[in-house]
Design brief:
It is built from eleven helices and 16 strands. By secondary structure, it is α/β, with parallel strands linked by helices. The protein has a seven-stranded mixed β-sheet with strand order 6-5-4-3-2-1-16. Helix 10 runs parallel beside helix 11. The protein is globular, with a radius of gyration of 22 Å.
C-alpha cells in the first residue's frame, strides 16, 4: 500500500505543482490502483509514473470543482485506448454522472470497458472482503467529502515452526489449520488450528480529505489513521484567507491530526504563492502542533506500512 501524489497544487496548475490527484497503490493487496480526485492533466502526470491506467479500478471524487474533476474525461478515454477492458467505478457527489456522461457523449468517446458511476452522500460507499470506504461531508463552497479507507484485519500467520516440531509437514492440512479448524493427525493426535495461528494483523487506515475548512468531520474520519492526507492551502498567518475561501491552514491541518491521533500527516493542495524555502516553513508551522508532518510534492510517494500482530 502506497500513496503516490500526482497533483498537489490548489486551484490552477503551476510549474511546480499540478492540480489535485492522489493514487492509492494497492498492487500487492489487489493488483489495482485507486485514484482520489482527477484534476486537469492527471493522465499526463501518470505518464511519469509506473501507474497503468488499465489497473485503475476505482476513482473517488471529493467534490466537483474543476481542479478536482477536469482530468476525468481524458483519463477515461485514454484508459480505453491503452487496453483497459476491466470495469471501472467512479464515485462522486451528485452531478458527477451528468458531468461524465455529457463530456463523453459530446466528444463521441466510446469506452471499451464497463464504466459505473455511483453518486454518494455520507456513509459507507464501498465495501468488500478487503476494504471499507466511508465518506463524510466537510465544510467547503461546494459539497466536499473526505474519505476513510479501512483495510480489514488480516489473518494471522501460520505458526509453521510449532507444527514442524509436532511432525506436521506441509500439505493441504496446513490450510485447514490456518482456517482454525480442528484436525486429526494420522496418529490420532487432535490439533486445534486456532492454537497454531498468530493473532490477526490490524488493517491499515488512510484518511484523505477533500477541500475543507477546519471541521469536526475531518477529525472523525481521521480517527487513529495511519496516514492523514489533508489540504493546507494557506500558511498559519493567513487564516482569514483560508476561512474566506473555504480552505485550511497548516495549523488547522495539524490540529486535525493531533485531535484524531493519527500517525502521520501529509500536507497537500498547496497554494502557488508558496515556493522554495516557503514550503519548508509550512512544514515547520505544522510541526509546532503535530510532530510527524510531511509536505507532498508532485510524484512524492509514501508507503503505508503493515502493522505487526497484536
Amino acid at each position: 500500500m502506497e500513496l503516490l501524489f500526482l497533483g498537489t497544487g490548489s486551484g490552477v496548475p503551476s510549474k511546480g505543482r499540478n492540480v489535485s490527484a492522489v493514487a492509492l497503490q494497492l498492487l500487492e493487496e489487489r493488483g489495482a490502483t485507486w485514484l482520489f480526485d482527477c484534476g486537469e492533466a492527471t493522465q499526463h502526470q501518470i505518464l511519469h509514473t509506473s501507474i497503468r491506467p488499465r489497473r485503475i479500478e476505482r476513482i473517488f471524487i471529493s467534490h466537483l470543482h474543476g481542479d478536482h474533476i477536469f482530468g476525468l474525461p481524458g483519463l477515461l478515454g485514454s484508459r480505453s485506448f491503452q487496453g483497459g477492458e476491466t470495469p471501472l467505478v467512479v464515485y462522486g457527489p451528485a452531478g458527477i454522472r451528468t458531468f461524465i456522461d455529457t463530456a463523453l457523449t459530446i466528444s463521441g468517446t466510446r469506452l471499451k470497458y464497463d464504466l459505473y458511476i455511483e453518486e454518494f452522500t455520507e456513509g459507507v460507499i464501498f465495501e468488500d472482503e478487503q476494504f471499507v470506504v466511508t465518506a463524510k461531508l466537510l465544510d467547503h463552497g461546494l459539497p466536499s467529502y473526505g474519505f476513510r479507507i479501512v483495510e480489514k484485519d488480516l489473518p494471522g500467520t501460520l505458526l509453521v515452526d510449532r507444527l514442524l516440531a509436532l511432525g506436521v509437514r506441509s500439505g493441504p492440512i496446513y490450510q485447514k489449520i490456518k482456517r482454525g479448524e480442528t484436525v486429526v493427525l494420522e496418529d490420532g493426535t487432535v490439533i486445534d488450528g486456532r492454537e497454531f495461528v498468530a493473532q490477526p494483523k490490524k488493517g491499515r487506515i488512510v484518511a484523505i480529505m477533500g477541500d475543507t475548512r477546519y471541521c469536526e468531520a475531518s477529525i472523525e474520519l481521521a480517527k487513529r489513521a495511519d496516514v492523514l492526507v489533508h489540504e493546507a492551502t494557506f500558511s498559519a498567518e493567513e487564516a482569514h484567507l483560508a476561512h474566506d475561501y473555504y480552505h485550511s491552514t497548516t495549523w488547522q491541518a495539524a490540529e486535525v491530526a493531533k485531535r484524531a491521533g493519527v500517525k502521520q500527516l501529509i500536507l497537500t493542495h498547496i497554494s502557488s504563492r508558496y515556493q522554495g524555502e516557503m514550503c519548508e516553513r509550512l512544514v515547520e508551522e505544522a510541526k509546532t502542533i503535530f510532530p510527524n508532518v510531511a509536505l507532498a510534492f508532485d510524484f512524492s510517494s509514501f508507503p503505508v506500512l503493515k502493522k505487526s500482530a497484536e
